[in-house]
Design goal:
This protein is an alpha/beta fold and 327 residues long. The protein folds into 2 domains: 5-182, Rossmann fold (3-Layer(aba) Sandwich); 194-326, no CATH class. The protein has helices spanning 28-39, 53-60, 68-74, 84-95, 111-114, 135-143, 162-172, 184-199, 202-216, 221-230, 232-242, 244-249, 253-266, 269-283, 286-296, 300-310, 313-326; strands at 5-6, 20-24, 43-47, 65-66, 77-80, 104-107, 125-131, 150-156, 179-181. NADP nicotinamide-adenine-dinucleotide phosphate is lined by residues 25-30, 48-49, 52-54, 81-84, 86, 90, 108-109, 130-131, 134-135.
């Protein structure tokens, strides 16, 4: 079933005119939300832990900054943009004890609500505004007078104004290229799946495997880098801007033919079975359980993965190439 899309004429842009928004967490998303909302005429304050470096940055940008507890007392809407795992404790300790009926709690990702780590609170609106892109892009496009698409959802409409608030927030924070209705469940599961199977799992593994195959066969690492990493951007840009068919028209017919006949042998039935397994692990809550345990343990495996990847040949070869392109 096609999802509902809200376009500019349907958005009650002034729904937050008399409200204060607290953005708790001034990182990738939080910084862009806070700056864009403020530039859209919304009253914004920022929540940060004591001694927080990003809290200092928010203060230097002219925001009033307080703890999660302090800003929850002062705000009408509270957007939580800290990392997902510590967010449950920040909510429990700082936000929840200070919530009152009529407020709204917002999320940029449904993880904590969907997996039951943040329970809905009676009398309070709960909504989701998830820009489809990283915060830096959200801010840059907003400054250029453009924006990103966004996913929006309401898990609880206690005030009867939850949808107006969600839509006005989304518009104000820079989601100005279509707002698509979703649910906390759909956003959470599809977001985790997309990042694991395609964006942050599948694509980097494909790049590494392609690079390593060429280098192992005696090709120069620089040539392998250009073929398997550098040129991904050109193809991805074409797919995003024009779609698959038009991307194929923009490449040589040799590349088009080779892609059609070889692609399905690389991403094959085994890969699709792995994708179905990935989705199952997400939907059963197994992935969330493992990730929370990893965080509570100090992220030892995440640190190991980062170190191993930083030492890969594709990284060593790529650094000077990227540097020379910047010059
Ligand atoms: N990144 C994306 O592209 C993206 C896209 C869509 C949705 N989202 C969602 O947006 C939310 C935020 O993600 P993000 O990537 O923007 O987060 P992030 O940049 O990692 O968040 C960093 C911010 O959170 C604060 N913080 C970190 N740990 C904290 C703790 N234990 N207590 C209090 N504050 C803490 C940091 O403060 P300090 O300076 O004190 O460390 C900093 O202000 C998540 O729900 C995520 O799923 C992210």
């Amino acid at each position: 079933m096609a999802t509902r899309r809200f376009d500019e004429p349907e958005i009650p842009k002034d729904a937050l005119r008399d409200e204060t928004v607290a953005v708790v967490g001034y990182g990738n998303q939080g910084r862009a939300h806070a700056l864009n909302l403020r530039d859209s005429g919304v009253r914004v304050i920022v929540g940060a832990r004591p001694g927080s470096a990003s809290g200092e940055e928010a203060r230097a940008s002219g925001f009033e900054v307080g703890t999660a507890a302090e800003v929850t007392k002062r705000a009408d809407l509270i957007m939580l943009t800290t990392p997902d795992v510590p967010m449950a404790e920040i909510f429990r300790e700082g936000v929840r004890p200070n919530l009152r009926a009529g407020q709204m709690v917002l999320f940029a990702h449904g993880f904590n609500v969907h997996f039951g780590r943040i329970p809905l609170v009676e009398g309070v609106d709960f909504g989701l505004v998830s820009p489809k892109g990283p915060g830096a892009g959200l801010r840059r496009l907003y400054e250029q007078g453009s924006g990103l698409p966004g996913l929006v959802a309401v898990a609880q409409d206690a005030t009867g104004r939850a949808w107006d608030r969600v839509l006005a927030y989304a518009w104000g924070c820079g989601c100005r290229k279509g707002l698509y209705e979703t649910s906390f469940q759909e956003e959470t599961e599809s977001d985790l799946f997309g990042e694991q199977a395609v964006l942050c799992g599948g694509i980097p593994e494909l790049v590494k495997a392609g690079f390593e195959t060429l280098v192992a066969a005696g090709f120069s690492p620089e040539v392998a880098y250009f073929e398997c990493l550098h040129e991904t951007k050109l193809i991805v840009d074409l797919m995003v801007e024009r779609g698959l068919a038009a991307m194929r028209l923009a490449i040589s017919d040799t590349a088009e033919w080779g892609g059609f006949v070889t692609g399905p042998s690389v991403i094959n039935e085994e890969s699709r079975a792995a994708m179905r397994e990935t989705l199952k692990r997400i939907q059963s809550g197994e992935f969330a359980k493992d990730w929370i345990a990893e965080c509570e343990n100090g992220q030892p495996n995440l640190k190991k993965y980062r170190k191993v990847e930083a030492e890969l040949s594709v990284e060593q070869v790529g650094a000077p190439i990227r540097e020379s392109m910047r010059g």
